[in-house]
Amino acid sequence: MKEAWDAALAADPVSAFGGVLITTARIDKATAEAIDSIFFEIIAAPGYDADALEVLKKKKNRMILERKPADRSKVKVRTALNGVLTEDPDALVANAAAMRTASTKAPTAQEVSDMVFATVLVKHTKSNAIVLAKNNQVLASGTGQTSRVDALEQAIAKAGKFNFDLHGAVMASDAFFPFPDCVEIAGKAGITAVVHPGGSIRDQESIDHCNAHGLAMCITGHRHFKH
Fold this sequence. Notes:
Helices cover 32% and strands 20% of the residues. The protein is an alpha/beta fold. The protein folds into 2 domains: 60 residues, Cytidine Deaminase, domain 2, CATH 3.40.140.20; 124 residues, Cytidine Deaminase, domain 2, CATH 3.40.140. It has a 6-stranded mixed β-sheet with strand order 6-11-10-9-7-8. The chain has a 3-stranded parallel β-sheet with strand order 1-2-3, with no helix packed on it. Strands 4-5 form a two-stranded antiparallel ribbon. α5 packs parallel to α6. The longest helix has 15 residues. It is globular.
């Protein structure tokens, strides 16, 4: 648990201060002590070791919640002018079998694992979204930008700010690349594999760029595009 905390915090230690922390694993004492070094107003986890609770309860005005299993909603509701919109939730789960290699160069096993991981993250990131990952750790994300290039450049800048080496990293995009500019920028930054939904009439231009510069590209056929 502590290892996962360290890896997650490293992606953006500045923005981590304050707010809400949610985990998928039980919190032990070592992790609780690390969490306690940064202020979080609300913590939610499926369980806590007794000595971890002692650490976390020392801070006043902190809400400590226990997550319980719950069914996910089958309908999403959004407000709109004079009413609401309903839509099916994005229930697609990233997996290696759904990733079709589109480039001449095939991704390595580690790159495939990283692309699956990055795709899970990019699904939950507001579009336009880019996630950079390596060794199953998020290095940076670009989120909510008006341009996919802006999202990528934001992610590269954040990775540099926190001293991550992007050589050998992967890039995941929540939607297709209408132009080859993103794969070109990614390759120059050291990224070696990219994954996106595909579906642009100009997909081949991005594939051709990958082939010409030794990048691996996978296409999922599924677009997330969260707004």
